[in-house]
Amino acid sequence: MLKFAYSGAMAIFQMPAGFLSERFSPKLLLAAGTAFLGLAFFLLGLTEGFVTLLLLLFFAGLGSGPQHPLSSTLVAKAYETGPRRAALGIYNFSGDIGKVTLPAILALVAGAVGWRMGVFGLGVFGVISAAAILIALTRLRAGSRPKPQTASEKTISPSGWGILNRRGFAAISAINLLDTGVTFGFLTFLPFLLIEKGAGVEMLGLAVALVFGGGAAGKFLCGLLAERLGIVRTMVLTEIATGAGILVLLFMPLLGALALLPLVGVAMNGTSSVLYATVADFITPERHARGFAFFYTVGMGAGAISPLIFGLVSDAVGVSTSMVILGVLIFLTIPFCLMVSYSQQPLPKRRDDKSHG
């Protein structure tokens, strides 16, 4: 329930944050959200009751809402004519580094001076980070408030969601839905699969760390790979490797499975960097924020629902069969990858266009 309060609030506020950034300064929204997050964590150190804890985590999630869509938009805009996929891969990689290092530091501080002081420190760090974000983006002249449009500009500005290719955007959204759902389902069943292979409780933490470590590397490497191979080839490669890796894990002994987990993590999370950058290909620059917000919300929704659905499936058919289903299900992304390829092809010129040339 505590995790759902935070994650749910973050998912809820991503869409409003995307819309607000089209009227207000994205850098102010990012800084304000980070400061709000820090303040919520600071107050967590003072809380006593469960309900108060739940509310503060909910508010912390609201503060986190602008981070993904607005940061991705700023990165995509900065590299609009450059290696955007590599840049977003580095951005996603840095996020995973933070997810590993900050909890580790918090655990060390909490062990030394108590959890309340550790949470206080995390809150102060959040507020300082908000100030640093505002200063850095101001110096870079990034994330400023959108300029008011003139009457002539309003007539040619994109309306609605600014989707340039509905088929392409629908295809990458479907890939995101399936890919994230399989990832969270896999992480749910992995400990049970390893226990069946004879793993002890102390080894399960290592296994998850191996997947996350490989996943962080995958976000970085696959962003670079997409710049060389192209997005469709990279996505097909990572999705096939993910499905094959999940299925091979079922037949591997414990040590072999542990050795394979980082590679599965690379393939499994590597797709995300390619997908995030591709969002910008199908949305006009003025609507990038709401496009990223929708895309991240779809992924978070799939991640929340997937363990529940596959938990019921596992109760009916067992862990191993559920893992087979996950391994096969990821291959359903391949047709959508081909749809992305088709959507990126320029439309053929009509004959009457040639005659006027």
Automatic annotation (TrEMBL):
GO molecular function: transmembrane transporter activity
Record PANTHER family: FOSMIDOMYCIN RESISTANCE PROTEIN
A cellular component term, taken from the record's GO annotations: plasma membrane
Membrane spanning residue stretches: 28-61, 117-137, 169-195, 201-222, 291-313, 319-342
Domain Major facilitator superfamily (MFS) profile: residue ranges: 1-345
Pfam families recorded: MFS_1
Coiled coil: none
Protein name per its UniProtKB record: Major facilitator superfamily (MFS) profile domain-containing protein
InterPro entries with a match to the protein in the record: MFS (IPR011701), MFS_dom (IPR020846), MFS_trans_sf (IPR036259)
The organism of origin for this protein: marine metagenome
